[in-house]
Every structure is written in structure tokens, then in C-alpha cells.
Fold this sequence. Notes:
Elements: H1 18-96
Amino acid sequence: MPDSPIEPAAEGSYPGNMESRVAVLEYIAGRLDSRFESFERRFESFERRFDGLERRFDAMSHEHRSEFRWLLGIMLAGFGTMLAAFGGLLGVVAHGFHWL
């Protein structure tokens, strides 16, 4: 099918010939490109901020893990000490009542 000629439009907001239409579309595409580039720069800055936050979170997470292990060790040692003291007390009571 051969190209059909585009007739000039009546008085309207768009020009009638193809070159000016293409020029308008190229102008719009250029504006969109510049806006996308500015959005891309903003997102890159957000990425850098989140990377910094992630590094801080990893450091804090490691610190909390080590503190948790330390506290868990203290609690287990305390529980073991309480069991030993209770067993010793039972031994003293049993010896006092001549059960042993």
C-alpha cells in the first residue's frame, strides 16, 4: 500500500506538515528524557542513602547478636548456679534429717 499523503489539518493546535509534527514529538521526547534522567539521579541518591542505612543496620545487628549471646550465657549460668544451690540445699536438708 503506498503512503497516503497527509493533508494539512484545519486550524488547530497541531501544525499540518509532517516535519513540524516530528519536531514537536522530538521536543516532547527530549523533555521526557531530561525528566527521566533527573528521576534517575534522585533514585541513585536514595540508593546511596539506603546502602548507608543497610551498612549501619548490619553493624547494629551484629552488635545485638553478640549482646544477646552474652545475656543468654549469663542467664544459663545463673540458672545452673541456682540449680546447684538448690541441690546443695537439698543435700544439707537431707543430711540434717539423716536421710543420707
